[in-house]
Amino acid sequence: MSTIPITPPPRSLPDLSRRIRALFDRRETIRFLVSSHLKAGHRDKVLGHLWNILDPLLLMTIYYLVFGLGLRLGGDNHTEFLIYLFIGVVTWRFFETSVSQATQCVRANRGLIHEISFPKAIFPISICLSRLYDMLWGLIVLFAILLWLGPPLTLQLVWLPPLVMLQLLFTAGVVFIVAYLGAFFADTTNVVGVILRLSFYASPIFYHVSGPNARFDVKYLKYYMLNPMACFLESYRSVLLYGEAPGYLPYLAAISALSVVVGFATFSRGEGAFAKYV
């Protein structure tokens, strides 16, 4: 008599709630992993954590030379384009480094996964928080540039913490999915690398999508802005550069909530099989 395989029920909300509580109980482990990531990232470097400031500055300089002076994408207002670029670099760098590092975060900890029972979600979470630390250093440099060269800061800065939090949630959701795929497929690193490069050019980091220097056909703008990273970039610039309220906040709140919920549920669903594949 043949047996019929029983498909396990999907994760219920109480089960996800239990997993979230388990993560909270491991907050000291997450803190330790974040500290380890930060130390490992600057080990044997003469300048150490100073690279958190130098990296975005050097990237901004390169992009300015190529796209600002070379291709003249910023028009004649070079000071504004420098700040425009720096906001794009800092924002994108947080997303890109978090996602790219997450591809191997499960496989890199196979020893722990085989030996200890604990919520594996602490690995992608610790990566996001480590890269958020780097982003905060970039924002400190950005504020210094704004005070020196930029327009006066306005009360619209109150929107900055919510934007950072929404980007953290959105990035965490993507990181959960990438980490899940990386645990089962070794090719994930290569595929994600290609997707990130495409996303880089599909996001307004070094070119304008609105205003007099826009390099984008306005009739396609509403479709282009379905890209969450484009909305984050433009929202940060509205707050920091133009002194305006972010125009995409409802969409960003919805897509960030969806991202983190779907990402965490997907990752949690595969946790039990990680030990078999890594």
Concise description?
The chain is mostly helical and 278 residues long. It has twelve helices and no strands.
Characterise the protein shown here.
This protein is mainly α and 278 residues long. It has one domain (26-36, 47-277). The chain is 68% helix and 0% strand. The chain has helices at residues 13-25, 27-41, 51-70, 78-102, 110-115, 122-148, 160-184, 188-201, 221-224, 228-240, 249-270, 274-277. Helix 4 (78-102) runs antiparallel to helix 6 and helix 4 (78-102) crosses helix 10. The model is unreliable at 1-11 (pLDDT under 50).
Indicate the low-confidence ranges by residue numbers.
Answer: 1-11
Note the run of SSEs as H and E: HHHHHHHHHHHH
State which percent range the strand residues make up.
under 5%
User: Helical segment tally?
Assistant: 12
Q: State the secondary-structure class.
A: mainly alpha
Could you tell me how far the N terminus lies from the C terminus, measured between alpha carbons in angstroms? Answer: 35 Å
The total beta strand count reads 0
* Proportion in helices: 55-70%
What count of domains describes the coordinates? Answer: 1
Largest sheet: none
Shape: elongated
What is the average of the pLDDT values? 83
**What is the CA-based Rg, rounded?**
21 Å
